[in-house]
Amino acid sequence: MTKKLCIKTYGCQMNVYDSARMADVLAPLGYAPVDGPEDADMVILNTCHIREKAAEKVFSELGRLRHEKARKEEAGGRMVLAVAGCVAQAEGAEILRRAPYVDIVLGPHTYHRLPEMVARAARVAPSRPGAGLLDTEFPVEPKFDHLPSPSSDGTGSAFLSIQEGCDKFCTFCVVPYTRGAEYSRPPSDVLDEARILAGGGVREITLIGQNVNAWHGEPTKGGGGDWGLGGLIREVAAIEGIERIRYTTSHPADMDEDLIAAHRDVPQLMPFLHLPVQSGSDRILAAMNRRHTADDYRALAEKLRIARPDLALSSDFIVGFPGETDADFEETLSLVRDVGFIQAYSFKYSPRPGTPAAMMEGQVPEPVMAERLATLQEILGRQQDAFNRACVGRVLPVLFDRPGRHPGQLVGRSPYMQPVHADGVASRYGEVVDLKIAEALPNSLSGVPADGAEAAAGGVSA
């Protein structure tokens, strides 16, 4: 009998990947994914601890789901309610204390044990609040060793997790505490999964990890010392059917020469890189424990663009980090103007309990942070708009991976991760199609099929 499974995913691409694998491990138990929690037999909140007040948002959602769970039980059914991910890892005991109707709390390293936990939860009477299961250990055996083969969702694009955890200990970040130490999956396992995905029709693979370019492993063919991410990318590119490769999220300190060369040498590697810098002030970067300076980042951007002239950059920024002065903020603006970004995620600093920055002196007042963020986002917005407008008239290959708002319309991603929509292309779902860009809209591009047209030579400079 088919059972309904609703997974609500918050946060990063790692959580998107983890949610898909949780669905995979539950499929043999008869669970099939549905969009909403109404009448679901199991609901999983796959949580993220990066954003402000993440835990409180989880408790708010749990309060709404409590009523769905009660209605299900009143009708004679059972809803298994689980909380997974980084909030679960950091605050598992508190979740069970404040929401005793939760059946399972599991960290990001233990979801391969979900079938066992579901079976144990089924043996607990619904009338026994406070009997929820807690599993937030960091197991010795990697979870990847216990997962079924991945499956394609038919969009032509898939995430492939190659690395987990973080050893950088940026002072604002909870990831080392919720995801653990850095772990690199063996190259043979990664390549086997990539081949399975390619065989299922996947044309674009995004290699993901908390510090994805910290990945390393022994070459599958022996000799030559450890591979870095550049070597792995070359091997993935050799797999038949793989037309596009991306990776995220990278750390500037782990951008080695071989990875930079891969941007030059591997045509499947897309000319877009998300490379978080966080601040343009060396003083603040040191306080963040980022292990690079602003000029290191400028030099790295120049090296990447020499290797791949059409490469465009995206980044992350935190404004209002403890102790940030007006002069520090001006240095961030200077870096933005010098480097140029076509996309960016920018946020006001918010303290994370247990991180060193949360206890630092010099917390910046909220109105000051808000003003700085508005200034930064205005400059970043102008850069993004200029880049998008420069694409008009060019032919870009677009991978269509979702339906648009109108009948016959599809939306996909350009090599630069821009959303692009086109009409009358419903039959091209999951394909890479050359589109001539007709219009730059505030948050996307529109195009028309350019079958037979050659893609414009060269790239677009940010």
CATH architecture title of the largest domain: Alpha-Beta Horseshoe
The main sheet comes to: 6 strands, parallel
- According to CATH, the homologous superfamily of the largest domain is tm_1862 like domain
The CATH topology of the largest domain is given as pyruvate-formate lyase- activating enzyme
Give the % helix: 25-40%
Give the overall form: globular
Low-confidence stretches: 452-462
Number of strands: 19
For the biggest β-sheet, the strand order reads 2-1-3-4-5-6
Structural category: alpha/beta
Average pLDDT, rounded to a whole number, is: 89
What's the tally of helices? Answer: 12
CATH class category name of the largest domain: Alpha Beta
Terminus-to-terminus distance: 53 Å
Question: Rg, please?
Answer: 23 Å
Hey, roughly how much beta strand do the residues contain?
15-25%
Description:
By secondary structure, the chain is α/β, with parallel strands linked by helices. It folds into three domains: 133 residues, 3-Layer(aba) Sandwich (Rossmann fold), CATH 3.40.50; 246 residues, tm_1862 like domain (pyruvate-formate lyase- activating enzyme); 55 residues, OB fold (Dihydrolipoamide Acetyltransferase, E2P) (Beta Barrel). The chain has twelve helices and 19 strands. A six-stranded parallel β-sheet has the order 2-1-3-4-5-6, with helices on both faces. Strands 15-16-17-19-18 form a five-stranded mixed β-barrel. A three-stranded parallel β-sheet has the order 7-10-11, with helices on both faces. Helix 7 links the parallel strand 10 and strand 11. The radius of gyration is 23 Å and the shape is globular.
